[in-house]
Input
Amino acid sequence: PASTTRLPHGDLAVGGVCLTEVAERYDTPAYVLDEGEVRTRCRTYRDAFAEAEVYYAAKAFLSRAMARWIDEEGLGLDVCSAGELELAVTAGFPPERILLHGNAKSPRDIAGALRLGVGRIVIDSSSEIARLAAAVGPRGRQDVLVRVVPGVRAGGHEKIRTGTDEQKFGLSLTDGYAQHAIARVLGQPQLRLTGLHCHIGSQITEVKPYVAALRRMVGLMARIRDSHGVVLTELDMGGGHGVAYRPGEPALDPTALARALRAELRAGCAAAGLPVPRLLIEPGRAIAGPAGVALYRVLAVKRTGSTTFVAVDGGMSDNPRPALYGVRYAPRLIGRASTADPCRATVVGRHCEAGDVLAADAHLPGDVRPGDLLAVPVAGAYQLSMASGYNMVGRPPVVAVDGGRARLLVRRETLEDFRSRDIGG
Ligand code: LLP
Output
């Protein structure tokens, strides 16, 4: 996780910056992103997957600075809307290293991708093929991948499992839809099929399902060669690499994954008489998640029969993950040392719902009180990117820390932001 250092008086430093100082300077709630940790994670992936192309999945977290870091570290970018695409390109990200996803790409997404010249577009449904070809126009040619559902079950929660047919993404391998779509793509002169894609789910902590999916994908590549005489040169295995949100939880090791995929790819291709395609991967959470820390201030403490409710100044509007997936975080008290016995606290947000719970069974000192600061580790992915305007609380700022210095990347959403969008009609 973010390169934390324990300081005296129970304080914590990230990227060489004391979190209490960040809270004082930028107010709470606030999200702190450790630039060095993001870069280190990019390098870990680059090293582990040296012969592959690593695309950071922007949906986990994107800002202009983040796009620049990803670019400087030599990764590509996976986007799934014109919004993510435009923001990245505005930051100077080279469009040819961008890949566009989406199960329902809007005309604006497609027009933006073609105008800016993204490297690849991933086809997710049959209905998209003719529409994309028409948008490319008679003289153009767009590199595409086809997203295949390999029929492998994996992933940390029902809502983020995408490897089998009972969900909306991709084209089924088992039912033959993928094969049909591939034949149609090959018949479109405006589209150049460079390879296949699959993404079996998210928050996966084991290597095995990836290997199983890869085996099926190589099998399909061999069948495409046999029936169409086409040898595909790319295989994108998506993202989904799990991280530990609390101490002791498992995480996926990118080096172990790279080793297993490489071995299976070589063996599978050799057996099928195929040249080894270029491997692509799309980690999002594993790059951004552990590099982030959320900071909250305690506003109220309520002791009921069995539970101590510790209410903070943020909650489900800046982090909907607990409400959506039932995940729990491990907040800790910072900014003062306490010798009080620990209590089992339920850390809740400030929103008007009983389900607005950030952590159950959090280990906090028994004297936790209003005004205290809490730090929530592993907050860099799918929190701010999924934040909402619920209760008009406003989304927190993002502060980058690096080498002992803090700087604002994204400012806090203010009441004025809400008011200015409401044109009063
Ligand atoms: N590639 C594709 C096609 C994806 O759909 C995703 C994530 C990724 C890559 C990156 O997956 P990652 O490495 O970050 O797991 N909001 C959920 C996660 C949704 C993931 C959606 N797709 C959460 O907070 O757990």
Summary: The mean pLDDT is 96. The chain has two domains: 4-32+289-421, 36-286. DSSP finds twelve helices and 21 strands in the chain.
